[in-house]
Each structure stands twice: as structure tokens, then as C-alpha cells.
Amino acid sequence: IIASVIESIEGGKALSDALGEHPGVFDGVFVNLVKSGEDTGTLPDVLNNLVLSIKWQDELAAQTKKLIMYPAFMSVVVGAVVMFMMIYLVPKMAGFIRSSGQELPIQTKILMATSSFFVDYWYLVLIVPVIIVGSLILIVRHNSVARYRFDEIKLNIPYLGEIQRKIILSRFASVFAMMYQAGITILDSIKACENVVGNLAVRKALQRVSGLIGEGQNVTAAFQTAGLFPPLVIRMIKVGESTGELDKALRNVSYFYNRDVKESIDRVQSMIEPMMTVTVGVILGWIMLAVMGPMYDTITKLKF
Q1: What's phi and psi for 101, nearest 5 deg?
Q2: Which residues of the chain have pLDDT under 70?
Q3: CA atoms of 295 and 301, how far apart (whole Å)
Q4: Which of 224, 297, 230, 274 is closest to 71 using CA atoms?
């Protein structure tokens, strides 16, 4: 790709045009910023800002993976343990429990019925979740209404939704500031940000903002009317609009949210670990109580 870019430049094309031939590597925001840097003679500053932005996005991705990896790993472990106990361990115990001839408690009956379902329909237990998840992914990808609802729900999930909202707003503020500083108009900057927020609900809100600004409203009022942007963003946009330094105000928004995201991820991760431990303990405790309870009652009734 780099060789192709060099060839295009040697053929007389501008750097931005050469980069634009490879949208899979250089997205629209990257190309527009480079083009603006070429037009205004500030290409070194633009490229330096892009370096800082890419580093920040990489750190953010690492933080997000850190949040997801532990719950995902623990979920797999818990699922494997439950499958093993339901399919192998509980059926072996069930024969002994039934042979005791005593009245079984309700939790034991539920456990044995669940175990029988796992043994008889184990393929459904494995296949149905995959089919459900796959169907939901296809629906969300190919249905704009479903995608909008799904993205809206993601923003309202307790704790995790708030983190995702901050990540999106931090990315929006950072890209908006870069483009505005590079001399790109506010409407063009907002339009470019629609493709980088990664959430259809936020993208629709930005489209409403663009429409309101196009109709003559000032920037602050347009963002406030959209109804999806928190007070911090509104206040900083108002400060930037009144001082003529909108890019600096937006960089402050990005800084505050970036710092808050790291703190929130650490806080949520510290909550997830004990929650997962308690969940594993509850599941295993229920199984052990349902199995060992009747066995203990049987042993205590034996006469030696």
C-alpha cells in the first residue's frame, strides 16, 4: 500500500488523494485531515495530532479489552464447569439419591430435571445460544431500526453503558477538535464525526445537530436540543464558541472523559471480579446443596 501511495504521488497526485485510494487503511477522517493540512500548510501539525490520536485510541482499546477479558474468561470457565457437573457428575449422583426412597427437596428435583435436560438435549444447549446470538447479530447488521435500538440499549446498560457513552464522546470531541483546528468547517467536522462514533443513536443525534446548525441555530443550542449530549459537553462547547477556541474546549472534553474512562474501567473491573466469584459460588453451592443434602439425610438415617 505504501508503495502504491508513493507511485501515485510520483504520478502527480496529492498525498491526500493517494491515501484516499486505500479507504480500508486510511479512513475518511484521516484523508480529510491530511487534505486540510495540505491546503493550509500545516501538514506537520496535522500528522502530529494524528499520531497522538492513534496512540490514544490504542490505549483506549487496551483498556476496553482489559475490562472485557476477565468476565469473558470466567463465563467460559463457569459454563464448562456447569456443563460437566450437569452432564457427568449429577447423573451419577442421581441414581444413588433416587435409590434412597426418601422425599426429595424441591432444589434437588429442579437440579435433577435440569441435569436430565442437559443430558438429553446437550446439543440444543450448545447450538441454541449460538443461533440466537447469530440471529441477533444479523438482524442488527441488516436492520437500521434494530441497530438503532440495540445501540440505544447499550448506552443505557448500568455502569458499562456510561463507560461506552464517555468513550464515544471522548472520541467525538478529539476528532472534532482535530478537524476544526485543521480549518475544516463545523458542519463538515460534525459530518465526519458521524462515521467515527460507532453508535447509530449518537450518529442520529449528530445528524440532528447538523440539521439545526444548517437552519441557523448556534452550535451550543443545536447540541443542547439534540438531547443526547451531557452538560459537560454543552458547557465546554459554549465556552469554546464564546471565546473562539472551540478546538481547545473540545480537547478539554476529550481529556476529562479519557481520564474518567480509565478510572471507570478500573472501578467496574474491581466490581466485576467479586461479582463473578459470588456467581460461581452461588451456582456451585446450589448444586452441592441439592446433591449433598439428600445424601446426608440418607447417611444420618442409616443404623449401624
Answers
A1: 75, 5
A2: 97, 99-102, 294-304
A3: 10
A4: 274
Rg (CA), the chain: 28
The Cα 179–Cα 169 span in angstroms is 15
Tens of pLDDT, residue by residue over 233-248, are 888 888 888 888 888 8
Tens of pLDDT, residues 9-52: 999 999 999 999 998 898 878 888 888 888 878 888 888 888 88
H-helix or E-strand spanning residue 39: helix 28-40
* Count of residues in the chain: 304
Instruction: Tell me the one-letter amino acid at 127.
Output: I
122 CB-near residues (< 8 Å, 6+ apart): 83, 87
DSSP 156-207: TSTTHHHHHHHHHHHHHHHHHHHHHHTT--HHHHHHHHTTTS--HHHHHHHH
